[in-house]
Amino acid sequence: MKHRVFLCLLALTFAVSAQTALKTINSGREGQPFTISDYLGRGKMTVLEFSSRSCPRCRALEEKLRELQAANSKIVISRLEIDRPGSTGIDWQSPLARQYNLTSVPHFKVYDSSGKLLVEGEPARKLVIRLLVESGIL
Fold first, then answer.
1. Which of 46, 70, 107, 120 could form a disulfide with 111 if both were Cys (CB 3.0 to 4.6 A apart)?
2. Which residues contact residue 40 at a Cβ distance below 8 angstroms, ignoring those fewer than 6 apart?
3. Left if phi > 0, otherwise alpha if psi is -120 to 50, otherwise beta: which for 87?
4. pLDDT tens-digit profile of 40-94?
5. Are 70 and 62 in contact (CB under 8 A)?
6. In 3D, which of 93, 85, 90 has the Cα closest to residue 54?
């Protein structure tokens, strides 16, 4: 009986985690050119994070962004992985990094609920930090 209860709790934990996981919207096409507009204007603010598996700050921020998305139903947070499969280090030469002229990660773009770009780069990072603070995460 205890074993079944443990398994049920474990399954519930995974289900909740999956619901609040950050979506990598270019999964399977990491580092390749990407059309962001296909994922915008769905009635919620969209925060896009350009990220790298080799970026310690990106990895450290992931849990906080996951908490923000879980805490605020008016925000969708998605991740774009700039590294191509097999790359070592941050892949600054990937087609995706070059498409958006990325020179640092994490790099944010924030869009309003209609899909209009509000801010990007440093102003977007400050907005994300403000949202984290207002949500009590930071």
1. 46
2. 46, 111, 115
3. beta
4. 877 999 999 999 999 999 999 999 999 999 999 999 999 999 999 999 999 999 9
5. no
6. 90
The beta-strand segments (E) located in 1-138 are: 23-24, 45-51, 75-81, 107-111, 117-120
Give the position of tokens 């603010």. Answer: 45
pTM: 0.82
How far is 75 from 113, CA to CA, in rounded Å? 9
Edge-first strand listing for the sheet containing 45-51:
23-24, 75-81, 45-51, 107-111, 117-120
> To which residue do tokens 């990895």 refer?
59
In single-letter form, the type of residue at position 77 comes to I
